[in-house]
Structure formats: structure tokens, C-alpha cells
């Protein structure tokens, strides 16, 4: 787990599912595919999402 620009981040890497990143910012949560950067579920404010995807 890490902290980046006020967002909590942690990764999941499993044989049974694609590698992805969980992000929490305030009350919002999002799951992002790695390395593509596609949002799998949830939402974040546009500025925070761009920072995480960079």
C-alpha cells in the first residue's frame, strides 16, 4: 500500500485475475488494469485519475 497525491494505492497480482491497481481517494474508489491503465470499475475525479494513470 502506498500514498500518492493523497490517493491510497495497492496492487493485486494473481494467476486467476488480471493484474490491477486499487485506488482510494476520499470516499471514491477505482480499480485500474495494469499496464493498460483502463478503469475496470469505479471512478475518481478526472485530475486524480490522470495522475494515477501517468
Explain how this protein is built.
This protein has 54 residues and is mostly beta strands. It has one domain. The chain has one helix and five strands; from the N terminus they run βββββα. It has one helix spanning 46-53; strands at residues 2-4, 7-12, 20-25, 28-33, 39-42. Strands 1-2-3-4-5 form a five-stranded antiparallel beta sheet, with helices on one face. A hairpin with a 7-residue loop joins β2 and β3. The mean pLDDT is 77.
Keywords:
mainly beta, 5 strands, 15% helix, single chain, 54 residues
Note the topology:
Elements: E1 2-4, E2 7-12, E3 20-25, E4 28-33, E5 39-42, H1 46-53
Antiparallel strand pairs: 1-2, 2-3, 3-4, 4-5
Q: Mean pLDDT across all residues, rounded?
A: 77
Helix count equals 1
Q: Roughly how much helix do the residues carry, as a percent range?
A: 10-25%
SSE order in H/E notation?
A: EEEEEH
Whole-number radius of gyration? Answer: 10 Å
Alpha carbon gap, first and last residue: 18 Å
Low-confidence stretches: none
Characterize the largest beta sheet: strand count, sense, and whether it forms a barrel: 5 strands, antiparallel
Largest sheet, spatial ordering of strands: 1-2-3-4-5
What is the domain total for the residues? 1
Q: Based on DSSP secondary structure assignment, what is the total number of beta strands?
A: 5
What percent strand? over 45%
**Helix/sheet category:** mainly beta
The global form is globular
